[in-house]
Write a structure and sequence with these properties.
The chain has five helices and eight strands. It is an alpha+beta fold.
């Protein structure tokens, strides 16, 4: 396992193929489907492909990606948080998704703040962005909590989906 960072309550590590059962569950949660989209992951083999082609490929290609978020107290998998380099965005996107049962406990805010610090201090990334569904107020609050400010809207290529765009400038 490759551990990336630790906070007071959390550990973020590289996702691995053995995390496919958790990813299968996460990407099919109602909140994920509504706010992020349907990734068409319906079985463990597809979940492994999702990890292989997404987070794992990103670690190799960009040196960062979405990290698995675990609670230090018991090792429970809480969700994902990390950086995504999207073709249509100039800067890495701070992305996150949390299992419903762990929402409202500040886990993602804690993880996202740690990811931003890691991006600045360890990866040398000075500018980051965030995208969010226009009606996802909880996610907007997280982006604002980590220092991002609204910067307009973007249309996701290949779809008619418009997202709110946030920027975090040089630290």
């Amino acid at each position: 396992m490759t551990f990336i960072l630790t906070t007071d309550r959390l550990r973020l590590r590289h996702a691995e193929l053995r995390d496919a059962p958790a990813m299968l569950q996460l990407v099919n949660e109602p909140e994920f489907l509504q706010n992020i989209g349907d990734k068409q992951v319906r079985n463990l083999q597809q979940a492994e492909q999702y990890l292989q082609n997404g987070a794992i490929a990103s670690y190799q290609q960009h040196g960062f990606g979405l990290y698995l978020v675990e609670r230090l107290a018991d090792g429970a998998t809480l969700g994902l948080c990390g950086l995504v380099q999207r073709d249509y965005l100039q800067y890495p996107d701070v992305g996150y998704a949390l299992f419903r049962e762990y929402s409202g406990q500040w886990y993602i805010s804690e993880a996202a703040l740690a990811v931003v610090a890691y991006a600045h201090e360890k990866l040398g990334l000075r500018q980051l962005c965030g995208i969010v569904a226009p009606d996802n107020l909880a996610s907007k609050r997280i982006l604002e909590k980590i220092g991002m400010r609204p910067a307009g809207q973007k249309t996701v290529p290949g779809s008619d989906k418009t997202v709110d765009f946030y920027l975090l400038g040089p630290a």
